[in-house]
C-alpha cells in the first residue's frame, strides 16, 4: 500500500502539468483584464498542431533533423498556433472591445470542429491518431519547464515594474491609461502569452503525456485550469499547489481504474466532481482583478 | 427596424466570411470547396425526404439553442444544455426500461425533464450560494453527465440484443414519422411550438421581464424587489426544460432506433450546436428558430457532402466555429 | 510656471455641452479657486488641463508654449497633476506601486531610490502613509495624501485638487489647508475646485466662478460671500417649499440597533431611527461614514448583520447613483417605468405593455420628462431627465416611506428645486421621507428632523430647530 504513494505522486505531477501551464497563462491574461475561456479549444489545437506539423515536415516535406529536435519543433508549432489564436482573442477583447466570453466560446467551438476535421482530413482516421515514438518527449522536461514558468510569472507579476503595469490594466484600466500605459497593447500581449502556454499544455498532452491525438484530448482540462485560476486567487505560486491537487484527483482516478476498485466511468467523473467541490469551497475568498472581462475604451 | 436590418446584414457578412475561410481550409486539405458546398447546402433542399431530415435535425438544436438564449437574457452563459440533453435522454431510456406500453411516453417526458432540471439545479445553486462561475459549473456537470449516462446505458439500461444501444422506446410510446419514410415526427412541430412559448414568456411574462432586468443590471433588480437569484434559478430551470425535452425527443421521436446510442452519438454535441444557434439567432427566439433550421440543413448536408465530395462530416463544425468567431467580432460591447 | 487656457469648448459624445468657451490663467505661487455648482464644468475644465479629456476646441499654453496633453502622464511631464474627487489610485496595488506605475515597464524591481525619495517628500509635508498596503485598505484621507506625494514626486508644479474636502474630516481639512499654504510658499500653484463658499474664503488668492460651462465672474479678496453665491447660482427664484403641518405620530420606518458589516469592517454600528408620517428625517454627514450601507440595508440590497428594520406601508427608493442603481440604461422608458411594479400591469402573469406605455406617457407629462418617446432607451436622456424618471416612478408608487439618497446630486438648479419641491409635497401629503444627503443646505431646507452620521454611528439626532449648524458641523467632524 505504501509503495503506491510515490507512484501516485508522480502521476499527480504529470497530470498537473497541463493544468498548471494553462492556468499560469490565464492568470497572466486575467491579471491584465482579459478573460479567455477558450483555453480548452486552444489546448485541443495545440495537441493537434504539434504532431501534425512534425508529421508533415518529417514524412511529407522530408525534412531531416536529429530525433531530439522533433519534440521541440512540435512544441514550437503548438506555441505558434496558440499565439495566433491569442492574437485573435486579444485583438477582439482589447482593440475591438468585443465580448470576451463569446469570443472564447467561439474558439472552443471552432477548435472542436477544426481538430476533428484536421485529424480526419490529414490522417484519414476518425478522431484518434497515435503519436510516433520519434516525435515524443519525456513529460518530465515539460514539467520542469512549467515550474520555471510559474517562478518567472510570479516574479514578473509581483516583483517587477512590468507586473505593476499588468495588474494596473486589470484593476483599473482607466487610471492605468492615464498613467501613460497602453492598456490594450498590454492586454494583447498577455493574451498572446496566455494562449501560447495553453497551446503548449495541449502539445504536452499529445506528444509527452498521452502519446495520442484525439478529438477530445483536452477533456475539460481547459476549464479545470480556469477553475484553478480562481482557486489560486490569481497567484502563480498558488496555481502550482492547485494544479497539483487537481492532478492528484486525476491520478486517483487512474489508480482506481488500474486496481479495478470502481467502474471505469465512475473514476472518470472524479476530476470533474472534485473541481466543482474545490471551486465551490474556495470562492468566497477569491478576489478577481476588478476590471477582468471588461473592455477598455477612452472617452 | 434599422437594428433588425443591421443585424441581418452583420449575420450575412459573418456567414459569408465563414464560408470563404471554410473554402480555403477545404482547398488546403485537398477537397473541392464548390462541390462540397453544393452538396452541403443544395442537396438537402432538393428532396422532401432530405428536407424533412434537416428539419428533424433542427428540432433538438432549436431546443438547446433556447436554453442558451434564455440564459443570455438573464446575463448567464449557461453552456449546460449538452449535459442536460444527455440527462433528458437518460430519463426517456429509464421510462422505456420501466414500462413497456404507451405510458412510457408521458413518463419519458416527466423523467427526462426532471433529470435535466435536477442537473441544472446544481450549477445554478452553486452559482447562487457559492458564486461558482456558471461556465465552469455547467461544463463540469456536462462531463459528469457524459460518464454517468454512458455507464447507465451500458449497464442497467443496456439493450441485451443490441450492445451498441440502450433499451428501445416501446413501440406504442414512439412518436413515429408524420410522413411515412421520412424523419419528420411530432418532435419538429413540438420544438417550434416551444420556441413560440419561450418567445411569449420572455416578451410578455412578469418573470421574463424580471429575468431581463436582473440580467442587465442586478443592482437595480435588487433595489426594487426582484431577486436576481430567483431570476438565475428560473432561467436555468427553463433552459433545462427545453434541453431535457431535446434529449427525450431524441430517444422517443427519432427513427429508426428510438434508443440512446451507447456512445451517446445521437445526443452528443447538441448542446454546443444550440450555442451556435442562439448566437447566430442573436438570442431572440425567432432568430434561434431560423438559425436552427439553417444548422439542421448543414447537418443533413454534411452527410451528402461526405458522400458526394468526400469532405469529412466534421467540416461543418469548422464552419460553425468560424461563424461564431465572426459574430463575436461584431458583438462590440456598448459602453 | 504660468498656464493659460484659451476658449476651451467641450461637447461630450452624449451631446452635453459642458464647456462653452472658457479662458483662464493660472499664475505661479497662487491658490486659484474654481467655484461653481455641480455640473458647472469645473471638473471637466481641469480634466482637460490634466490630459484626461481632450477639448473639442480651444488651446492650452504652458509658459507661452502650446501643449496638447494626451493623458495624465503627458500633463504630469508638463508639471500638471490632478487629485480627483473620486480618487484615482489603482486598487490592488500598494501605495508605493501606485507611485511607481509611472516608471514604465521593466523587468527590474521598484528602485529603493524611489522609495527613499517618496518617503522624504511625505515626511516634509508631515504625512504619515503606509506605503506597502493595498491602497484599497487605506482611509480616503490617506489615499489623497498618497496622490499628492505622487504628484510632487513626479515633478508637478501645478496641483489641481477636485473637491478635496468631501472625503476628509474637519481635522484633516485643516491640515490639508496647511499643506496647500506650504506648497504655495514654495512656489507651486494650486487650483482648488469646490462648491463650498467658506473653503474658498479661507484658502483662495483668487476665485474664478463657472456657471453652465461659462466663466461668470472673477473675484479677489476680500470676498463677499453673498456675491460669490450669486455668481455661482445666478438668479434663481427659490420658490420656498412650504412645510405644511407637523409630523404625525405613526411610524413608517423603524430601525433598531442595526449593524452592517462590509467584510470584517463594521460600517453601520447600532443605528436607531424612526421616520414618522409627514416627517422628513435628514441624515447628514461627510460621505463615506456608512450612509450608503445604511440606506442599502434598509431597502434590502445589502444584508444586515443584526438589528431590526420595520417598514410600514411600502417604500419607494431614489438611489444616489441613478445610472447604476435605479435605471437599466439599455432598456426603454416603459420598461424602466414599471420596475418593481410589474405585477400591477400584469394579468395572469402576462404584462400588458399597452397599459405600461400609457402609464409611462403619464409620467412623461406629469414630471416634464424630455424624451424622444416612451420606447426610446433611457441612455438617450439627459441626467436631469433620467432623475425625473426615477423620482416620478418612485413617487407614483404611493408608498408611505420615501428613501431618498442624494436625490439632487449632479442636477441643475431648476431640477434640484423641482425634486425638492416634490419631496416636500409628498411629505405634506402624509408620507415619511428618509433623506440622506451630504448637502447641508438641502437638509436644512427640507428636514423636520436631522441626524448626523459619523463613522457608522448616529452621533446627534433631534428636531431641526434644536440642531444648529454649528452643532451639526462639530458632530460631522466627530467632535
Describe this structure in words.
With 299 residues, chain A is mostly helical. Chain A has a single domain, classed as ABC transporter involved in vitamin B12 uptake, BtuC, CATH 1.10.3470. In chain A, 73% of the residues lie in helices and 2% in strands. Chain A has helices spanning 4-31, 39-60, 69-95, 100-123, 139-158, 161-171, 173-178, 183-209, 221-231, 236-258, 264-282, and strands spanning 128-130, 212-214. A two-stranded antiparallel ribbon of chain A has the order 1-2. The model of chain A has no long low-confidence stretch (mean pLDDT 91). Chain B is an all-alpha fold and 335 residues long. Chain B is built from 13 helices and no strands. In chain B, α1 packs across α13 and α5 runs antiparallel to α10 (228-252). By secondary structure, chain C is an alpha/beta fold. Chain C contains 16 helices and 21 strands. Chain C has helices at residues 42-49, 72-77, 95-100, 112-125, 140-153, 170-185, 197-203, 225-233, 291-298, 322-326, 333-337, 353-366, 383-395, 413-428, 440-446, 469-476; strands spanning 3-11, 17-26, 31-35, 57-62, 65-67, 80-83, 158-162, 189-194, 206-211, 214-219, 251-262, 265-276, 280-284, 306-311, 315-318, 346-347, 350-351, 401-405, 432-436, 449-454, 457-463. Chain C has a six-stranded mixed β-sheet, with helices on both faces. Chain C has a six-stranded mixed β-sheet with strand order 15-18-19-13-20-21, sandwiched between helices. In chain C, β20 (449-454) and β21 form a beta hairpin. In chain C, α4 (112-125) packs across α5 (140-153). Chain C is globular. The two termini of chain C are 40 Å apart. The chains are: A mainly alpha (299), B mainly alpha (335), C alpha/beta (479). Chains in contact: A-B, A-C, B-C. Chains A and B meet through α4, α9 and α11 of A and α5, α6, α11 and α13 of B.
